[in-house]
Design brief:
- By secondary structure, this protein is an alpha+beta fold.
- It has two domains: 244 residues, Nucleotidyltransferase, domain 5; 205 residues, Nucleotidyltransferase, domain 5.
- Helix content is 37%, strand content 22%.
- It has 17 helices and 23 strands.
- Strands 17-18-16-15-21-22-23 form a seven-stranded mixed β-sheet, sandwiched between helices. A six-stranded mixed β-sheet has the order 3-2-1-5-14-13.
- A hairpin with a 4-residue loop joins strand 10 and strand 11.
- Helix 12 packs across helix 13 and helix 13 runs parallel beside helix 14.
- The radius of gyration is 22 Å and the shape is globular.
Length: 494
């Protein structure tokens, strides 16, 4: 028997088939084969049509079933991971009224800031654990203000994963974790933030019903079966946003456990049982997948825009052929890059730097002595230093790290990158070869409550290696101290 997991991204849809008992990954497919298009009608806007996600979910599902020659009735559970903070609005027939306003769309920034100021920073921090900012609730307010004819036809609002679950099963519902990522959840009253909806003038009836993250959330309908290739009656057991789901995929559930990703941007997602939000302007706080009213588990999310994109820029401009070649060049240079520094903040405003836009800064380059090898090392160190800097911010907000787990992506494959972080924070970094789709598929079994067996599956199937703190800690600390001093100068000059 098998479970199937979906990862609904803005670039592609991934679907994974895993064995129910062992959690072993059988196959993963991606649709479409090229990146999905984003619609940008104005600068700062980003939209996608929800039915495009559904189309690719159906194609990926049929591909998995056919390629692995299985009977759809052998699939016993469906798990869904999805791009966070998106807005889907449907009419009373469940038909989307407009394109989804997705995570990277910035049109609602001013709306969220105005609400933050009007409602009070302490109130928002204490009850929402965040500013309304540019999240889903503020995007819905934008629709109300700018597209009143569409707003007046809305029957329900949803997050992207809610829409896919609806297309599969015909039932509209969401989770507390999902509502918290949209900034619809009041942690103080453990209920919908009706006062925020009232402030925005949003009808409370537009909110979906709430189901548990690990539960029977619905079953594939006859219509969903005919379109997707799944069997009617297949249970939908799990859904979560991509970053909480990435943490789940890495067996990160408990206070002190941290999930990290090092793709185009970097993410540090740390679990705590504290509702402290001292750094709410720089760190987001969401209900984690195992959040319970009596046993809160908060995922503190810190995003670093300038991460892998910095290394990719060097790849494209240094006359090198691969990341492997860059890593080899970097290995030829000592810790600290012989004084060369790179501050990798060239991918827009950095929230952890209080939304300042610094641009990438390369400094201390001696044209007689330094080479592209120094730039490669300085980039890896600079990105790693950015992660450490972010983790210091989180430490001031009640995070005490006990373990860091990361996927086997391009940055964490670099020994320089991982060793730098591990040494400066004094914690081993564990590397796992898994994906969000695989994690979503495995999570279908967590409605049974056996988190211990779930964790063992990840260790047995996915563990790749660990990077322990280096004995050369003094050299790393000296390089980081210099880099941080230079960063402070950059920040103060902005």
């Amino acid at each position: 028997m098998y479970n199937i997991g979906y990862d609904i991204g803005s670039s592609s849809i991934k679907a994974a088939l895993v064995e129910t008992v062992s959690g072993k990954s059988i196959a993963v497919v991606t649709e479409p084969k090229v990146e999905m298009e984003m619609i940008a009608l104005e600068n700062g806007w980003a939209e996608q049509h929800p039915d495009d996600w559904w189309k690719h979910v159906c194609k990926a599902t049929k591909s998995l079933i056919k390629a692995n020659n299985i009977d759809p009735k052998m699939i016993t559970g469906i798990g869904i991971s999805y791009q966070m903070h998106g807005l889907v609005v449907v009419d009373d027939q469940g038909i989307p009224l407009r394109n989804s306003i997705i995570w990277c769309d910035s049109r609602a920034v001013e709306i969220g800031q105005k609400a933050f100021d009007a409602l009070g920073h302490e109130v928002c921090a204490g009850q929402l654990l965040n500013s309304p900012a540019n999240f889903t609730a503020s995007k819905l307010k934008w629709v109300k203000d700018n597209e009143p004819k569409i707003y007046n036809k809305i029957d329900k609002f949803m997050l992207p994963g809610d829409y896919i679950a609806y297309r599969l099963g015909g039932t509209i519902c969401t989770t507390k974790s999902g509502l918290s990522e949209g900034i619809f959840w009041d942690f103080k009253s453990n209920s919908m933030a009706y006062w925020l909806l009232d402030y925005y003038g949003i009808d409370q009836k537009l909110a979906p019903d709430i189901v548990d993250t690990f539960s029977l959330q619905g079953k594939v309908s006859a219509k969903g079966a005919s379109e997707s290739g799944l069997a009617a009656g297949t249970p939908i057991r799990y859904r979560a946003g991509d970053q909480p789901n990435n943490a789940l995929s890495l067996n990160v559930f408990n206070p002190g456990e941290v999930a990290a990703t090092g793709g185009t941007s970097g993410v540090v997602y740390a679990i705590t049982d504290s509702l402290s939000v001292k750094e709410s302007s720089r760190v987001n706080n969401f209900a984690h997948v195992n959040y319970k009213d009596q046993k809160p588990r908060i995922g503190k999310l810190l995003c670093i825009n300038g991460a892998g994109i910095q290394y990719r820029w060097l790849l494209n401009n240094l006359n090198v052929t691969s990341y492997e070649e860059m890593n080899q060049l970097a290995e030829s240079v000592p810790i600290g890059s012989d004084g060369v520094s790179i501050h990798p903040f060239g991918n827009g405003a950095e929230r952890m730097l209080n939304n300042k836009t610094l641009g990438t800064q390369m400094s201390n380059i001696n044209l007689n002595n330094h080479t592209k090898a120094h730039l490669c090392r300085a980039a890896l160190e600079g990105i790693a230093f950015s992660f450490v800097y972010g983790m210091e911010i989180m430490k001031s907000d009640a995070i005490k790290t006990t373990v860091i787990r990361a996927g086997n992506d391009n940055l964490f494959r670099s020994a320089i990158f991982s060793n730098t972080i591990a040494t400066l924070i004094g914690q081993e970094i564990e590397i796992y070869n898994t994906t969000g789709a695989i994690g979503a598929a495995r999570a279908c079994e967590l409605y049974k409550g056996d988190f211990e067996s779930f964790g063992k599956q990840i260790m047995e199937n996915d563990f790749v290696m660990g990077f322990k703190p280096s004995t050369q800690k003094t050299a790393y600390e000296k390089a980081y101290h210099r880099w941080k001093q230079e960063l402070e100068v950059l920040i103060n000059n902005k």
